Amino acid sequence: MRQTFRADQRVDADRLVARLEAVRRFLTLVDGHLPDTPLVPAHTLVERAGTRLALSRDHTVVALAGATGSGKSSLFNALARMELSPVGVRRPTTGVTHACVWGPLDGGNRLLDWIGVLPRHRFVRESVLDGDDECAMHGLILLDLPDFDSVQRSHRLEVDRLLGLVDLVIWVVDPQKYADRVIHDSYLREFHRHRDVTVVVLNQADRLAAPELPRVLADLRRLLDADGLEGVPLLSTTAVDPDGLTGLREALERTVAERQAALRRLAGDVDSVVAGLGDLVGEAEPPTRPDDATVAGLHRALAGAAGVPAVGDAVERAYRHRGAATTGWPLVRGWRRLRPDPLRRLHLPGTATSSAAASSAADPAAESLVAATSVPEPTSAQRAAVGLAIRAVADRAGAPLPGVWPGAVTNAARSRLGDLPDALDRTIAGTDLGMDHRPVWWRLVGGLQWLVTLAAVVGLGWLVLGYALRALGLPALDNPTVGDVPLPTLLLLGGLLAGLLVAAVTRPVVRWAARRARRRAERRLTAAVADVGEEYVLRPVRAVLGTYAEARTALRDAAHR
């Protein structure tokens, strides 16, 4: 039974390199986000494929693999037409890998070094007598592998290693054990993504009667189809009859001529790796960032933990304190100045801190120069609220993602949690609260207060001078009058009453302006705290989401043949 390879499925070398580069890009992107164990096959593929493509592309490495007694070594010798691999009745017969190279050995030595075939087990198929007959096989490296069912574990390990390196595998089965579960479950079924570089040979066909051969081949085809190897070439061979190898030799000659086996093998490896990685990224379309409601909740929690309400209250009280000290009755201003300024009690004086904060923003190394504030420490409830808000951000952002990605999003959201308190404190200290300059109307009212106070002082002095002159028996002053009221008395009483009236009228205005200053300061503080949340929580989350999206794109590129 003679079948041919599916030569229509050619693999473009440049496209294969692009797929491998996409796998490499995927590994770079997910480094640190995904566990290492599932990525081992991908790392192995990238390294192995790079080496294989860098080595000889003019050689095709074909392995004969099979169980004990399947006749691999006899088939190997028959194809080489030389006695190269030992054949005997002792089991296992083949303990080491033998290689036969058609053409000069120098061209395949580097490839055999990489595969790991010892020099003493390498043979060259060159002969002056039949050189022309073998020229179609030039470039073929045929390996006779140890028995995969050997009782010696080292033989099985060697087979498994070599099966991952060769370009094409010829599975050799015999009529007695072609349905053995070990070869089907442990090997053939695992090669379903490498159908283009898999051949199954029913060897020792001469042991079957002519009517039995088609039935055995049909049953074997049924088993191969069940293994996912539909369309894989199935040949019957016999090593004792040269005509029994014709179909296999033609298939090998065609494979050597096409120079496609190595590319097809690597393409199948990429398919297998991409399929294994598919579960790690899934098909979910990731959000670009958490929803606005969740972000707003984070900002509120950070504002509470940063002490924005406390600073806002201090701003309102400081505005009233400073406004009263500027617009109040000058006679009691000194007493008011003895009371501490609420903002300075929190180490938030305004201009000095703002200047330091500005310098630290320009030079990150100067952050330590910004004095810590005395804003009250967040309560346990506020700290818990921050933790819950960060978890909500991570949960909402990572919910659509598969596998371990939600955990990666959570880790990213919490990655700078320890730096948040200091960052919030620096932000509060460096935010311009709008308290650096006194309003013009304060100065106008203050000037008016000094004017009426001066009038009261002049009236008082004038009256004291009049009393002093009378007490000394000197002529009394002729005080002018306004109506029936002497001018000094009018100046004294008018100044005092005017000062109290201006203070009474100004006090509600100061309180209204203080509330407005508080709202302005809270808006600025909230915006600054939101920037901290953006940098310390949302940006790492978005970075993971972006990495996930790029990883999905890279995996799609790797999957596209």
TrEMBL record:
Keywords: Membrane, Transmembrane, Transmembrane helix. GO terms for cellular component: cytosol. The keyword Secreted does not apply. The chain crosses the membrane at residues 448-469, 489-510. Residues 62-203 form the G domain. Gene3D superfamilies: P-loop containing nucleotide triphosphate hydrolases (3.40.50.300). One of its GO terms (biological process) is ribosomal small subunit assembly. Pfam families: MMR_HSR1. It comes from the Bacteria. InterPro entries: GTP-bd (IPR006073), GTPase_Era-like (IPR005662), P-loop_NTPase (IPR027417). One of its GO terms (molecular function) is GTP binding. This is ABC transporter. It comes from Micromonospora endolithica.
